[in-house]
Design brief:
2 domains, six-stranded parallel beta sheet, rod-shaped
């Protein structure tokens, strides 16, 4: 083969190699482009799934929090079980302490039971930043131990029948709202007062102010010794007391002498301080 033929053969071989390289490059480019498209599609799907999951979480969290902060709990002191959730009438709790202890701080709990139920408090109960509302008709409360309220609310939706007190003080309160109406308040011999304004401002777990708002309506039984509806405070304290149709038995007084009070006109509203 002549030199010229050899050169032509090399040119042909080079051209063929160039075409082959170009074809391979084009094939690789096509594969890479398809891979990028697949990755983009997969990424878009993943982003959509993440966004969907976030949306579900954003929807579920407020619903869950709402359920935690606004609860209805059923209680049955005869047939209930404190291991129950109390979320249904068929699975009631047994004690008021279990109901209040299992409600998170900041929550409002509506307590439900059969009409005519009597709830007995046999252990001290502490409510810190909780709102407690009794939705029970013809309810009676028996205080063998106290309830302590710190920055909390204790209310009854229906008038109670009896409040029976077998402990020195039934309710300790600090920076709280109390609204209780009953036919009768029945303290027993040796009781000192119905409420006592407790000191707690120095405790971080019992934060709040010195002022409570209290509203009562009931008839109080005679006592053998001095008994105060608002007994002596343990520290500086103030209240707004709204008292309606309150009947006081023998030896029963509204305010401990440690308090000073001003009545608002002829209304049963008092500004109280100590």
């Amino acid at each position: 083969m002549s030199v010229t033929e050899q050169i032509e053969a090399l040119k042909i071989a080079s051209a063929e190699q160039t075409l082959a390289s170009q074809a391979l490059a084009q094939e690789m480019e096509t594969k890479i482009f398809k891979s990028i498209q697949d990755l983009e599609s997969q990424s878009a799907d993943a982003i959509n799934r993440v966004n969907s999951a976030i949306q579900e979480i954003n929807t579920a969290i407020p619903t869950s929090v709402e359920k935690m902060l606004h609860q209805k709990i059923y209680i049955d002191p005869d047939n209930g079980d404190d291991a129950n959730t109390g979320n249904a009438k068929a699975t009631p709790k047994r004690t008021l302490k279990s109901v209040i202890d299992n409600v998170p701080d900041g929550a409002t709990v509506a307590i439900l039971a059969n009409p005519g139920t009597t709830l007995t408090i046999d252990e001290p109960i502490i409510a810190n930043n909780k709102n407690i509302v009794f939705f029970i008709s013809d309810l009676s409360l028996v205080f063998n131990e106290r309830i302590e309220l710190y920055r909390s609310t204790l209310k009854c939706h229906y008038m109670l029948v009896d409040i029976v007190q077998n402990t020195s003080f039934a309710i300790y309160h600090f920076s709280s709202d109390i609204y209780l109406t009953a036919q009768n308040l029945k303290p027993t011999a040796g009781n000192l007062g119905f409420t006592r304004q407790n000191y707690a401002s120095g405790f971080l777990t019992n934060a709040g102010t010195y002022t409570s708002n209290v509203a009562f309506q009931f008839s109080v039984s005679d006592m053998p010794d001095t008994y105060h509806i608002f007994s002596r405070p343990t520290w500086f304290a103030s209240m707004i007391a709204s008292l309606h149709s309150l009947t006081l038995g023998a030896n029963v007084a509204l305010f401990d002498p440690a308090y000073e009070s001003i009545q608002v006109g002829t209304k049963g509203v008092y500004l109280v301080g100590a």
